[in-house]
Structure formats: C-alpha cells, structure tokens
Design goal:
The complex is a heterodimer of chains A (118) and B (184). Helices cover 64% and strands 0% of the residues of chain A. Chain B is globular, with a radius of gyration of 16 Å. Helices cover 26% and strands 32% of the residues of chain B. Chain B has 184 residues and is an alpha+beta fold. Chain B contains three helices and eight strands; from the N terminus they run H-H-H-E-E-E-E-E-E-E-E. A four-stranded mixed sheet of chain B has the order 1-4-5-8, with helices on one face. Chain B has a four-stranded antiparallel sheet with strand order 2-3-7-6, with no helix packed on it. The chains are: A mainly alpha (118), B alpha+beta (184). At the A-B interface, helix 1 and helix 4 of A face helix 1, helix 2 and strand 8 of B.
Chain lengths: 118, 184
C-alpha cells in the first residue's frame, strides 16, 4: 500500500515534466511553415506517442529528448523550459522502483503472486 | 497545499490519491523541483491518511500537525525503500535509531522525516521499520545537494545519530525482500 501511494504521487511529477517539455516544443512551432512539413509532423507524432505511454517508466526521458530534438537549438540554452525538463526528468532513474523492479512487480501482480516484499 | 491529502474532518482538503497525483502533475508542468519536493510531503501525508482511515496509531497527530501547524514532512530515497540504511536497536518503549539517509527532499525546512530502518526481530527475522523521526536533536542536514537536475528540491543527505523514537511514532513494520524472497 505504501508503495502504490508513493509511486502514483511521485510518478505524476515526472509525467507533468514530460508533458510540459512536449507542450513547449509543440508551442514553439505551431502556426509556422515547419508545422506543415510531414517529416517534422512525424517527429512530433512520435514524441506525442511516447508521452501517451509515459507514466512510471523511463519513457518520460525519451519524451524530453524528443522535445529537445523537435524544438531545436533554442532548447539547448539555459532558461529554456525544455533544457530544464531535459535535466529534471533524469531524476526518475533514482526513484524506487527501478525499471527492472517495476517489470518484475507488474508480472507478479498479473500472475497473482504475492508482492509483500515491496 | 500542504494539507491537500489530509481528511476534511481534520482540517485538510481531503484529496484522494488520484486527485493528489493530478495536482502534482499540474504543478510539475510549471516547476519540476517544486512538484517533486511537494510530492514527497504528499505521499507521506496520503499514506498517513490511509492509516488514519484504518484507525492506526499516531496517524491523527501527524495529520493535525500538517493541517494546523503546516508541518512539512520529509521522506528519504535511494535504496531506502527496499534496503534501508542504518540500524534500529530495541529499547524500553521504542527504538534507538542511527543512519545516513540520502535524497531527503526539502530537508532544510522539514519538521518530521518519514524514514526506514532495518531491524533484526528475534521472532520475525529481518524487518523494515518505518518511523516518524523529528528533525531535531541528533538529526543533521548536510548541504550537499548540487545535482544535474531537480536542483530546487534541496534533497540533502541527513545523518541521524542515536535518536530515541517511541513506539507511537512507528508508521509501519514490514518484511524485507530477503525474508520473503520465495513467494509463498
């Protein structure tokens, strides 16, 4: 119980970070000629797709990496919200459970195995 | 905001775990560090509210402290959750605890720290004890949080030296990974 409460509340922080990076990247190009470019559209689509599956996983890191790619050089500067999200999202790796532990735990739940040792 | 997940009958806003998570998500889109530090307070508060709902000891006093005195709760991280650092020694009426804790977000302004210690129980074997440790005598916050990201969380190291924690400040007592590794 302690685990499911903590992970859902802390995980939501990283989801919010990834969302803000993706939104900032999209906002910088909406209404510009580049927004009509199919290869650019695919890039943004990929980022959006990763955001949809990102929650308690490393997918948030991928979203922020893509946001920096989408936004381009301006996102490399200090003061850019994407630059900050790119750094902040990396904290996700240092929270329990790790990705491997999460997968094992999810497998146990699906198989009806005891998960008390969390 | 501190009393977000405190039940309304104790002066809080009564947010569910899901609602609390949604607030953290919105907060994080504005400032990741603020949200992460706040989430560490919120998850301890939400767990304490869950314990209060089951009439478990000590929960009400902490929740009232959050709602009325605006206490900031600190939790610890790293491998603490699965393999806590430190030691707990059983004494009359409680435990004496020591340990070096890491990733203690907002520790410079915290009032109480929810943290864990391993304890070798003579009957139950190795246990993980979760306790509420006041940020007072015997607890030292270091100023070492200089990191790549989440820089505003002030998640400094905290050293706890031989502090007495009475039984009523126990939050949970659970088995460790090693003691139940074989799924029954």
């Amino acid at each position: 119980m302690i685990a499911s409460i903590a992970f859902s509340i802390v995980g939501a922080v990283y989801l919010g970070v990834a969302e803000s990076a993706a939104n900032a990247a999209i906002a910088s190009f909406s209404g510009t000629p580049k927004a009509a470019d199919p290869s650019f559209q695919r890039f943004v689509g990929l980022m959006h797709n990763r955001l949809r599956v990102a929650s308690w996983s490393l997918d948030g890191i991928e979203v922020c990496d893509l946001a920096m790619d989408v936004a381009g050089g301006a996102a490399f500067f200090k003061g850019s919200p994407i630059e900050r999200a790119y750094r902040d999202i990396r904290g996700i790796k240092f929270h329990p459970l790790t990705v491997e532990q999460t997968l094992v735990h999810a497998g146990k739940l699906a198989l009806g195995q005891p998960c008390d040792e969390l | 905001m501190l009393a977000l997940a405190v039940p309304t009958q104790l002066g809080g806003m009564g947010a569910t775990i899901r609602e609390t998570a949604m607030v953290m998500r919105v907060l994080a889109s504005a400032c990741a560090s603020t949200a992460l530090a706040m989430s560490m307070h919120q998850h301890v508060t939400a767990f304490t509210a869950w314990r209060y709902g089951r009439s478990m000891p000590g929960a009400e006093a902490i929740l009232r402290g959050v709602a009325e005195e605006r206490l900031v709760l600190v939790s610890t991280g790293g491998g603490d959750f699965t393999r806590p650092r430190g030691e707990a020694i059983r004494v009359e009426g409680g435990y004496r605890v020591s340990g070096h804790k890491i990733f203690a977000s907002q520790s410079p302004v915290g009032a109480v720290m929810s943290t864990m210690f391993p304890y070798e129980d003579p009957e139950q074997g190795l246990r993980v004890l979760n306790m509420a440790v006041p940020m007072a005598d015997g607890v030292v916050v270091e100023q070492n949080w200089d990191t790549l990201g989440m820089r505003g969380t002030a998640s400094n190291d905290v050293r706890i030296s031989d502090v007495f924690i009475p039984d009523e400040r126990m939050l949970a007592n659970r088995p460790t990974a090693s003691s139940t590794r074989r799924c029954r």
